[in-house]
Amino acid sequence: MKSITKLMVVAMLLVAALVVAPAAAREVGDGDNVYIGEKHADLSQVFGYPTGALPGYSPNGTLVYYSSVATPTAATIGKTIPVTDATDFELTAADFSSTGAWYAFNKTTVASGAKLTDQSAADGYILVEKPSTSLAVKLWQNNKMTTTSVKEVTRDSEIAFEIKHNIRLPEGVVNAAGSGFNMQIEVITPDGAKLTTLAGEPLKLNLTGTSANTTGIKLEDLKPGVYTVQAKWGDTDVLDSTKPDAVTFEVRSKALSISATKDSVVRGNDFSVDIVGESKKTYYVFVKGADSTSTKNPMIIPDQTDVSVDQTGIGTGIVAGTNASVKTDGSGKATIGFNTTKFTDDKTFTIRVKDPITDKTDDVKVKVETGSVTITTSGTGTYYIGEEITLSGTCTEGDKVFFFLTGPNFDANGVNLTQLRKVDPSDASTFESETVEADDTWSHKWNTADLITAGRSIDAGGYTIYAVSHNVNKAGLSDHEYATASINLRTGFLTATTSGATVAKGDKLVISGTAQGNPDNVLVWIFGKNYYGGTDGALAVRTASVESDNSFEVKLESSDTDKLAAGQYFVVVQHPMGPGTGSVDVNPAGTTLVPSATSPTAFNPVTLTGLQAPAAASALINVLDSPNIPDTYVKLTFFVDEPIITVDSISTKEAGSKFTITGTTNLAAGGILNIEVTSAAFQPGVKTEASGFSSIAGTAVIEKGDGMNKWSYEVDATGFKPDQYIVNVESIDADTTTTTTFDMVEATEKPTTPPAGEVTTPPAGEVTTPPAAETTTEPAPTPGFGALVALAGLGAVAFLVLRRK
At residue 83, what are phi and psi to the nearest 5 degrees? Predict the structure, then answer.
């Protein structure tokens, strides 16, 4: 009985052991691959334990990852992971954030003195990798899988499922029962059913090599619709945290169809049609009811893969260039490109696909529309000759825009924008043109200054610019899209002025103005008595850059005017009316007026320094007035005077008062004068008395006046003592000074009594009662500081008397 009882207990213990027994672990050898997320990995051999260790014996130790290894015995530890049971270990993603070699140190090895930093002391190592898988649907043809992934298939096709992976383990390990390194493919039908076999083909794959795939799966019995394919790890929960993304494929119900990438297209642009039929089959594609004039139809683009244009046997009435035989790819699809031109009819065309065996057809309609051209001009539409005008717009009728210009006495059918010669429709190079961008926009800059460099000129007036989708002139516009823009051109002009009619020697003078017509610069010529603009009697011209707002400015600094003799000077400001520096220049010797390098017309040089200055100025103007010279100019004059500063008379002032000192000057407005007001007194000082010397200093800004300019200075005489005062006014730039004096007297006392005759009456009804006589009770006096001193003295005398006694 006892024996039976013992057997039953043993049996029950075996059953319990079977119930709680863990899944079989994969034995990992030294140096083997292990994957992040893998469960039940037996690392006994890596930690140096023999296979089949004693029951209940759990080897443990530490796995070490080195961030760097300078030498095997002095490695830098990046991370360590304790292993409490090497016979059944899980590589969690949280622990194994680093891939590569991890070294195993048995606890016994460490106990015997091995250091974790000594890589060479490790009992073994594993190679940790992150598993990756991908799933694809491929065509199956000629009893093998193709490289073509498919999204759409017909029911006469065959497909295969492929899983690519990085599981690199021996086939014996992968194929072993319960290894866990297999994937179960699951197909979800359009109705939602989940299938693990499809058309009789099992969908479980062992992950050997670098990829695994099913054999061909026939689709002829499948219901049309979209199928979803997903893959999961199979037999065990090994790596169940990693699986590939799901994919879909569609089984089509229609045997033959055609569709267009665009419902409508602007002529001059391409479009394409897609046909879907059986795999690797030839079909006919053509324009139904095509016009007998080929160019009026959309044309099939030549040299397309698996597209043969103008094939016989398609049928009667087929126009050249509008038909082709097309072979589908493995998924039963093909794409055919068509182009249109400006000659294509603007109407709806029918593109047909035909099965040459069954005569089944399908159609798609594509509408070809007329494009358009637009043009706009920058600015207001009014420009000065020499300016740059930006033309811009859109064009949906072709990839280029061509321009021509019409205006008074130009060729009636248009001229080139810059050359101003008539355009020739048979020669596109006679037009200026611009490429249309991918978004159908275009932009073209027309610099009217180029007319001068091209040796042509254009008069002020109104003109029309044409933008056309083809190189045609005005006579050929009826067959093409175009747009126009009207502009008004004006002759460039010049304004100039000086900062003052008179400038004092040593003061600054500014010559400024505006130059319309977009010149790069203007030239400033200055003539005076024995003066030709340069030093030592040389001929020279100043250049002023013209800013974006058409303004210019030339400054004569103090050092310039200081060298000029008093008298009148004559200024010529020259506008070149085009690029460059104008038509005239100065020879290197600084003596002669010569044609400039950019001058369109030559003239006889004139030695201006050989003429008296007034005659030299006249000679320059005569050259600029020549009808052969396009430049324009303005004339100015200014006077140079000796610098003058005056101070208006100052009356006697009272000490402590505030007053203003004023005066006039011929120095330029905006200049600065230094003002000093100082006491004229001078006497030896006494330490115990305040100084009798008073002064104040400041600046005054010169203001524009009628004739002479004016200045003023506010004086606050608070603290000033009666005396004679000296006023000194100085211009640092002009190096000139003037002085004057005034007297300051004691301030007169102001009366404090009310004015005579003023009576103060209390308001009606108010009774004013004088205050009652006050009785003052003075407090008893207390000893002050003097009394305290006296008392102290008396005390001292008494003390001395007592000592003597």
Answer: -120, 110
Measured between its terminal Cα atoms, the distance across the chain in Å is 141
Tokens matching residue 353: 């696909």
Is there a single domain that holds both residue 486 and residue 506?
A: no
Pair (238, 309) in one structural domain = no
DSSP state for residue 539 in the 8-state scheme? B
Angle at 460 (CA atoms; ends 458, 464), nearest 5 degrees? 80
365 and 270 co-located in one domain: yes
pLDDT at 789 over 50: no
Name the phi and psi angles at 769, rounded to 5.
-105, 125
Residue type, 334: A
Q: What pLDDT score was predicted for residue 719?
A: 86
**The amino acid at 560:** D
CA dihedral 646, 651, 656, 661 (to 10 degrees): -20
Residues near 66 by beta carbon (within 8 Å), at least 6 away in sequence: 75, 76, 77, 78, 101, 103, 119
CATH number at residue 163: 2.60.40.1930
| Domain termination residue (choose one: 581, 611, 641) | 641
Q: What is the pLDDT of residues 33-63, one digit of tens each?
A: 999 888 888 898 898 875 555 454 457 899 9
CA dist 270 and 266 (Å) reads 9
- In the predicted model, is pLDDT for residue 595 greater than 80? yes
Supply the pLDDT for residue 314: 72
- In contact, 634 and 496? CB cutoff 8 Å: yes
**Residue 275 near residue 257 (C-beta atoms within 8 A):** yes
Instruction: Note the pLDDT tens digit of each residue in 488-542.
Output: 998 888 899 998 888 888 888 999 999 888 888 899 999 999 999 998 889 999 9
Chain Cα centroid distance, residue 771 = 88
Give burial (CB, 10 Å; 0-12/13-18/19+) of 802. Answer: exposed
Closest CA relative to residue 399, chosen from 332, 338, 329, 470: 470
Q: Is residue 267 situated within a structural domain?
A: yes
Task: Using the 3D structure, point to which of 490, 510, 541 is the last residue of a domain.
Answer: 490
What stretches of 528-607 adopt beta strand conformation (E)? 542-545, 551-556, 567-575, 584-586, 592-595, 606-607
Specify the pLDDT at position 54: 47
Whole-number average pLDDT of the chain:
83
| Bridge partner list, 744 | 653, 723
Whole-number pLDDT of residue 491: 84
**In whole angstroms, what is the distance from residue 419 CA to residue 685 CA?**
89
Task: Check: CB of residue 523 under 8 Å from CB of residue 467.
Answer: no
Structure tokens at 713: 């200075």
**How far, in Å, CA of 804 to CA of 791, rounded?**
21
Sheet strand arrangement including 592-595? 584-586, 592-595, 606-607
**Among 279, 282, 283, 285, CA closest to 329:** 279
